[in-house]
Specification:
This protein is an alpha/beta fold and 383 residues long. The protein has 15 helices and 9 strands. Helix 3 runs parallel beside helix 4 and helix 12 packs across helix 13. Keywords: Iron, Iron-sulfur, Metal-binding, S-adenosyl-L-methionine.
């Protein structure tokens, strides 16, 4: 496993504490999106389709640190958009580390080499570089040539500077198992510390709707990839073994959306990192007022094909905690790649999708307009 022992120990102690206290729902990872703007426009991304006034919004340092204070998760993953576009990100990272958080910055790496000197290596800090396969696969995924080469150069520079560097790899229905396996083989010589791999989520706003995987195709693809991972290839995944076993179709899991709560410029996103169906003002409100049972595979049509780590990793981690022998078996043998798959969750009672994007955008734009108008008022008028 590519997860450091100190991180595994801290998360294990945190889970044990919450299980002893019989906490019904608790987060493992805070997903922090301090901005939506990006310097790429990937065809499978549904995170950047906002008007310019919203793309120009940033969470302040105080708001980012406040989110970490509200949410007790031991891990903070900073995503976006492209977080390196945020000028105050080095300060945010430094202060989150000072709070004792494990911090990962997700980046497409276009700015990583340029900004590397603004950060310091730390045992609890990871870079997570977006790489969706080898050069042809990745450049096609991000809709721009040359990005793969820049990402690889940034990985080398990060390792040379003493940082932990992981990659995150999202796969779509045109992924070929042989190509994916060969790509994963190339990560070890680069010194990559861990690999996060996941199927793409079918964002309703993504420009390309044709290449998302359904659940059956996901399980078949990952079985074929993991078959090729035998024979001592030793890929270091920055994920739990039971989540990988789930991707291979061997576990029937419901998602745990509160395991990865998300704070964006809109607020605390309901219900998860992938779906913005509403926003809460506080973490407490998110946890207490969200109708969690109305979401997830089998409950909501938008969730039908989702098998993404941000929804299911927390489920797998809690399962590993409760069933250590099952976890140990998968750790020793790897995910099973043949035989019958675990039963699928029935979809006959799922509710139809709601489309709320335009409403949330208009509310945010009105908020921005009001704030701008108030800021332009003369001092005596404001009084």
């Amino acid at each position: 496993m590519g997860i450091p022992l100190n991180q595994m120990a801290r998360i294990g102690a945190y889970i044990l504490k919450n299980e002893i206290l019989r906490t019904k729902r608790y987060p493992l990872v805070l997903m922090l999106e301090p901005l939506f703007r990006c310097n790429l426009a990937c065809a499978g991304c549904g995170k950047i389709d906002y008007p310019a006034p919203i793309l120009n919004q940033r969470l302040s340092v105080a708001e980012c640190l406040g989110a970490a204070d509200e949410c007790p998760a031991p891990v903070v993953v900073i995503a976006g958009g492209e977080p390196l576009l945020h000028r105050e990100l080095p300060e945010i990272v430094e202060k989150l580390l000072a709070k004792g958080k494990f911090v990962t910055v997700c980046t497409n790496a276009l700015l990583m080499e340029k900004k590397l000197g603004q950060y310091k290596p730390h045992k609890n800090f990871n870079w997570s570089v977006h790489l969706d396969g080898d050069k042809p696969m990745h450049d096609k995924s991000v809709c721009q040539t040359g990005v793969y080469d820049k990402a690889v150069a940034a990985i080398k520079a990060g390792k040379a500077a003493g940082f932990r560097v992981n990659i995150n790899c999202t796969l779509f229905n045109d992924a070929q198992p042989d190509n994916v396996a060969a790509f994963l083989d190339t990560m070890k010589p680069l010194g990559v510390d861990g690999i996060t791999i996941s199927p793409g989520y079918a964002y309703e706003r993504a420009p390309d709707q044709q290449h998302f995987l359904n659940r059956k195709a996901t399980k078949t693809l990952f079985r074929e990839i993991f078959k090729r991972g035998r024979n001592g290839r030793n890929w270091e995944f920055f994920q739990s073994g039971l989540f990988l076993d789930f991707l291979a179709g061997n576990q029937t899991y419901h998602c745990t959306p509160w395991g990865n709560p998300t704070r964006t410029v809109f607020g605390w996103q309901k219900p998860c990192y992938l779906l913005g169906e509403g926003y809460a003002k506080t973490f407490k409100e998110l946890m207490e007022d969200t109708n969690w049972d109305s979401y997830g595979t089998g409950n909501y049509e938008k969730c039908a094909d989702c098998m993404v780590h941000s929804g299911f990793e927390a489920t797998a981690v809690k399962d590993a905690f409760k069933h250590p022998l099952k976890m140990l078996s998968v750790a020793l043998k790897g995910p099973r790649t043949d035989g019958p798959m675990a039963p699928e969750i029935p979809l006959d009672r799922q509710r139809p999708p709601e489309f709320t994007f335009s409403r949330h955008v208009e509310h945010k734009l009105e908020e921005i307009r009001t704030r701008k108008a108030e800021a332009e008022l003369p001092a005596d008028a404001a009084e």
